[in-house]
Specification:
By secondary structure, this protein is an alpha/beta fold. It has helices at residues 10-15, 42-55, 65-85, 99-114, 133-142, 159-165, 188-196, 217-220, 245-250, 285-301, 303-321, 349-357, 371-377, 393-409, and strands spanning 23-24, 27-28, 30-31, 93-96, 120-124, 145-149, 170-176, 202-205, 224-228, 239-243, 261-264, 269-271, 327-329, 339-344, 361-362, 364-366, 382-386. The protein folds into two domains: 10-38 and 303-409, Alpha-Beta Complex (Aspartate Aminotransferase, domain 1), CATH 3.90.1150; 45-299, 3-Layer(aba) Sandwich (Aspartate Aminotransferase, domain 2), CATH 3.40.640. The protein has a seven-stranded mixed beta sheet with strand order 4-10-9-8-7-5-6, sandwiched between helices.
Length: 411
């Protein structure tokens, strides 16, 4: 059966990722753990090397050539993120370590200023721990309470129940754009509209969505949006918080130190303007610049073309998975990203992952930092195959053959 071919040169794209050419346990590597982290194209690797070999210096305020050159590269990466998200201003882009730090920043800056005793934060039952724990911490600090909108057995948000949980005490809604454990793509336009009708700001956890679909923060009208570079074919340790200018301007700094100040005396500190007010200390310079290179790479292939290819991979993988009687898919929402979570009768997901690794197949096995999701589906863990731009239909077939071998080994 002929499979639809991507609108980019898949063979050439795969050749751009050096790590994919190796063998694991005497088998060609089949990497299907992209929801955890993606691999890096040569352009990103080379950009990091070039920064340290030719361009490196500390950024901002330096008057010498290297500092000015490195600052220009650093701020160019900010502009690339602005374009990627279609933010109105580049100073609405705050560089952080990743999605987790971005959410914590909002919790400890916006939250500590605007949330008090008796107030409520609303999330959903499909959230990653990074979009649960910071709000629990905020509630402990302020006397607020955390409300959780339920999901269905297909892994979809129950919108009537969500709407019913919005109240005059709701101070913030924070939801995943795409679930890392289930693949569910939430109806964020509807979520934002319902929250804004009551004057409630919305944060979107975009860790899974940014690498897999076009994101337009102005069209969505979200108030905050967070993502991580390492899931977007960029380096780890670098991520982004987008926030509307009016909200960021009113928020107090989260950390104190160099670069977030305008003037310091022992009596008082005047804080810097956006975005530097939230970027204390020497930043992750080389990896920020390399994130810009990753965005360039994705733009060359086309995010819509990548999304289309991954959609076809997921559809094919789902079709093949349904042919295996012992396999149960966890998360069957009608609108999904390229994530296939599953269990096998009587076989623990850790055993599935370990045995597939012996065949060179890398998947994720565990609770995926979403323990409440596992509790809801009454499973200890799931096996999760997640697809990226460089995956192929042949690799889906290899995965399914590997699953059948695992089942056979367990009798």
């Amino acid at each position: 059966m002929n499979q639809p071919q991507p609108r980019f040169d898949l063979a050439k794209a795969r050749a751009d990722f050096p790590i994919l050419s190796q063998t694991i346990n005497r088998h060609p590597l089949v990497y299907l753990d992209n929801a955890a982290s993606t691999h890096k194209p040569r352009a990103v690797i080379d950009r990091i090397r070039k920064v340290y070999e030719e361009d490196y210096s500390n950024v901002h305020r330096g008057v010498h050539t290297l500092s000015q050159r490195c600052t220009d590269l650093f701020e160019s990466a900010r502009e690339k993120v602005q374009t990627l998200l279609n933010a109105r201003h580049s100073h609405e882009i705050i560089f952080v370590r990743g999605t987790t730090e971005a959410i914590n920043l909002v919790a400890q800056s916006y939250g500590r200023k605007n949330v008090g005793p008796g107030d409520e934060i609303l999330i959903t039952a499909m959230e990653h721990h990074s979009n649960i724990v910071p709000w629990q911490m905020l509630c402990e600090q302020t006397g607020a309470s955390l409300k959780v909108a339920p999901i269905s057995l297909t892994g979809e948000l129950l919108m009537d129940e969500f709407a019913g949980l919005l109240s005059d005490r709701t101070r913030l809604v924070s939801v995943t754009h795409m679930s890392n454990a289930l693949g569910t793509i939430n109806p964020v336009e509807q979520i934002i509209a319902q929250a804004h009708a009551r004057g409630i700001p919305v944060l979107l956890d975009g860790a899974q969505s940014a690498p897999h679909m076009t994101v337009d923060v102005q069209a969505l009208d979200c108030d905050f949006y967070a993502f991580s570079g390492h899931k977007l074919y960029g380096p780890s340790g670098i991520g982004v918080l987008y926030g509307k200018e009016s909200l960021l301007t009113a928020m107090p700094p989260w950390q104190g130190g160099g670069d977030m100040i305008r003037r310091v005396t022992f009596e008082k500190t005047e804080y810097n303007e956006l975005p530097y007010k939230f970027e204390a200390g020497t930043p992750n310079i080389a990896d920020t610049i390399a994130l810009g290179a990753a965005i360039d790479y994705v733009n060359i292939l086309g995010i819509d073309a990548i999304a289309e290819h991954e959609h076809h991979l997921l559809a094919y993988a789902t079709e093949q998975a349904l042919k295996i009687p012992e396999l149960k898919i966890i998360g069957t929402a009608g609108h999904k990203g390229a994530i296939l979570s599953f269990t096998l009768d009587r076989i623990h997901p850790h055993d599935i992952g370990t045995l597939l690794d012996q065949l060179g197949i890398a998947i994720r096995a565990g609770h995926h930092c979403a323990m409440p999701v596992m509790d809801f589906f009454e499973v200890p863990a799931t096996a999760r195959a997640s697809f990226g731009l460089y995956n192929t239909f042949e690799e889906v077939d290899i995965l399914m053959d590997g699953i059948r071998q695992v089942i056979k080994m367990f009798g």
